[in-house]
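RECORD TYPE: inverse folding
INPUT: structure tokens
STRUCTURE:
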């Protein structure tokens, strides 16, 4: 009898791909988005951690919006690469799918929640302007979220909930570990950020599974597991506690 594991994607590799995709998405949002635009527009980074960047000076409206914008652009690039790299390794294709998903769910989800709550990145970007932007941005974010789920379903049909839930919860564990070490944000704020960017990406839970075997099973990859372990160390140990710059 052939063991069941032979016919399943490798769980540690699935977890590694989920962690790598989430951490890369978060670093894009915080460091490249907020932090990069802060420096590019003449600002000075006062503090940063895995879940925030505080900038003095610079073009504040663009700095606040930059995290969302870079996530949306990165999601499009990853999705286009996924749909065109048919002969790439199954590991790279699965990473691209997860990376696109985290970027789109972060970007569109942030647009919806920030508009409705009048707080967070988008609200800060539009601070002081008429309130009329809020319903429009919330509607655009919701439509974008639905389209993201549709596009991701077309790019890679979900054959098993296991292939989605393992990377989904693995990323949440890493995010919560980083939040637990945060010494700059309040414990509640850090934990809220960790949960909202991982478990709050509810788009992962609405994919409709399709029948049939997966196109290609995901074998164990020591390289991806090692890469995810390195990213986890950087994200949790170095960025998790946060840093102040005087």
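DESIGNED SEQUENCE:
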């Amino acid at each position: 009898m052939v063991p069941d594991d032979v016919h399943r994607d490798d769980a540690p590799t699935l977890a590694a791909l989920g962690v790598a995709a989430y951490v890369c998405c978060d670093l894009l949002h915080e460091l490249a988005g907020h932090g990069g635009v802060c420096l590019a527009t003449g600002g000075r980074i006062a503090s940063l951690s895995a879940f925030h960047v505080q900038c003095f000076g610079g073009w504040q409206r663009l700095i606040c919006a930059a995290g969302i914008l870079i996530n949306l652009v990165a999601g499009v690039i990853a999705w286009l690469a996924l749909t065109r790299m048919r002969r790439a390794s199954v590991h790279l294709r699965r990473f691209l799918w997860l990376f696109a998903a985290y970027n789109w769910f972060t970007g569109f989800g942030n647009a919806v929640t920030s508009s409705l709550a009048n707080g967070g990145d988008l609200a800060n970007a539009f601070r002081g302007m008429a309130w009329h932007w809020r319903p429009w941005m919330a509607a655009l974010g919701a439509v974008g979220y639905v389209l993201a789920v549709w596009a991701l379903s077309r790019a890679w049909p979900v054959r098993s909930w296991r292939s989605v839930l393992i990377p989904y919860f693995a990323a949440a564990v890493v995010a919560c570990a980083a939040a637990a070490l945060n010494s700059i944000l309040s414990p509640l704020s850090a934990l809220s950020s960790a949960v909202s960017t991982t478990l709050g990406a509810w788009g992962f839970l609405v994919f409709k599974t399709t029948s049939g075997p997966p196109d290609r099973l995901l074998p164990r990859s020591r390289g991806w597991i090692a890469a995810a372990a390195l990213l986890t160390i950087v994200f949790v140990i170095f960025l998790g506690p946060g840093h102040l710059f005087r």
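NOTES: The mean pLDDT is 91.
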